[in-house]
Structure formats: structure tokens, C-alpha cells
Amino acid sequence: MSVVHKALQIRLPPLPSIKDVIRLYKLRALRELSQNFLLEPRLIDKIVRAAGNIQNNIVCEVGPGPGGITRSIIQQAPRKVILVEKDPRFLPTLELLGDACKDKVDIDIITGDILHTDVAHFIPPDVKVGWNDPPPPVNLIGNLPFSVSTILMIRWLEAISRQEGVWSFGRARMTLTFQKEVAERMSAPILHKQRCRLSVMCQNWCNVKYKFDIPGSAFLPKPDVDVGVVTLTPLKQPVIKLPFKLIEKVVRQIFSMRQKYSIRGAQTLFPEDIREEMALKMYNIADLDPVTRPYQITNSEFGRLCEAYKAIITEHPDLENYDYRAPKKKVITENVDEVIM
């Protein structure tokens, strides 16, 4: 007979509600930091449950703010919680939580920008596992500010590709909130209206699951859009086994003209005078129809395009550093009237 083990839960001492904490500490969400406070305990618990069983795990929460999600994480009895918060106004509320559970859960509070913080320094080395092993007992959880979510996701994908930072401990899982449109992009399959560069990049390195929506009305202040909760688990092997920068460059340029034939975007990978010739060569090597639209291309087909691009820049190394976005060099001519004869 199978025995179902109920997850251990930590009961925190009586604390003021998050609404009361916000009022007591005179906290307000700052628009310039894209802050939105999630106040509904039922939805907060749902986010944390989406991460799976985090008992005895190391949990890093990004942007805990007043600590609503933090409370729910602590109640699931993790081994350690690492909080990375950019806004020092929230330190008293987070320290209040730290004091409330100091004998039960180890808590590190880091005041800093997650874009410039290496969380790996705070993770105990004994949790490290091999990349091909099941994911380690390490979770990233966060209600991400809209303004940094896409930038942060791309940076984390690059870290995953190199097995660096948090991912030097193995295939650590993420449970994150995004603007609904961004969440849809991350999980969008081919032909989906939201299919874009972010779709290909996320799905190349991770198993992406769109879990559920949270209405904007659940946040304070209410954002103009709803929010999507996404879980990402790094894959043992990426679909495209090439350097991150090369893949990102090819995918970005092809999607730069999303509604046009995909070869139009691919042409911008090359200087103007050889653009059409080289892009056609790239598509011939990849055995892909040039009139395919970017959102119709599968990840494995993008892999063939990336391999083809790599073959071309290996043959013509001077093309590798070509950047379509770089400012064009101006040709300076002398003013004829000022030339001394």
C-alpha cells in the first residue's frame, strides 16, 4: 500500500497582513521600477505551489517586495531562502520575516539588482548535481518587474547555455510571473500569433509551461494587463547545440521582419552588397524555403539555419562581426573652398 507523505509546513508567528505591512511602513509601488504588489494570499500560494515540492530546497526569490510570496515560500519549509531586492525600502519588512522564522529557515537578504547579482555565491555547494541528473533542490521564484523580465530571461538563458551561476548546480527550475503577452511569447508554438525570438530562445534551452493567469485586479496598483505564471526547466540538451550569441543573433535578425518572408530578416546578417547572395546560400545549405515566415519555422529548422550561418562565417570570417544595427561610417569629404592650392 502506497503512503502519501504530506509536505511539512512551517507555521509563522502572528504577523500583520501584507496590506497592513504596506500601510504601516508607508510603502507604495514605484512606477519607475515597474512594481506591483500581489496581495491575494490564495493566488500567492498558487504561484508557490506551481514550483512543486520545495521542502528542504534552496529557494531564490527575485524582487520579494513587501514579502507576500516570501511568506508562502517559508511556509513550505525550504532549507534556505535567498531574497534579492533592489529597493531598500522593503528591507524592514523582509527582516521582520527573517526574525519570525530565524530558528526554522535560513534567510539571506541581498540588497541589489538581480541583473548584477550572482546568486550562486549564496547557494550551499552540497546541493550540486550533474547536468544530466534530475534537477537539483534549487528553485528560482519571482514576481518579476515588467521592465526587466525579458532582459533577465535572456541573461538567464545564456547562463543556462553555459551552465553558469545558479545553473552550475544543475538544471535549476524557475517559476516566474510575466506580463501575460510575454508569458504567451515564451510558450508560443509555431504558427501562434505570439511566436517570436523569445519563444525560440526559451524553448531551445528549457521545457516551458504556461501554468495560469492572474488578473491585473489582484495587484496593487492594478497594471494595465493581466499576468501569466510560467515554469521553466532547463533541458539536458538544447535543440540547437551552438553558442548562445550565434543563435541569438540569427533568431533575432530573422524575427526582425516577422510578417515578411524569413529570408528578408536573414539578409540583415550580411553587408548590403552581398546580402541577397549570402542569405540565399544560407537557406540553400539549410534546405529551407526562403518564403517561409519566421513564425512558421520550427526550432530544429532554426538549428539548420544557425548551422548554415556558422558554415558561411567559417568560410568568410570577416562576416562574423557584421552588425546590421551598428551606425554606418560616414565618409568625410574636404570642403573644396577651404583647400589651399
TrEMBL record:
SMART domains: rADc
Domain of life: Eukaryota
Ranges for domain Ribosomal RNA adenine methylase transferase N-terminal: 43-236
The protein's enzyme class: transferase
Enzyme Commission number: 2.1.1.-
Residues annotated as binding S-adenosyl-L-methionine: N36, L38, G63, E85, D113, N143
Pfam families xrefs: RrnaAD
GO biological process: transcription initiation at mitochondrial promoter
Keyword NAD set for record: no
UniProt xrefs under InterPro entries: KsgA/Erm (IPR001737), rRNA_Ade_diMease-like_C (IPR023165), rRNA_Ade_methylase_Trfase_N (IPR020598), rRNA_adenine_dimethylase (IPR011530), SAM-dependent_MTases_sf (IPR029063)
Cellular compartment(s): Mitochondrion
Protein name (record): rRNA adenine N(6)-methyltransferase
Organism of provenance: Papilio xuthus
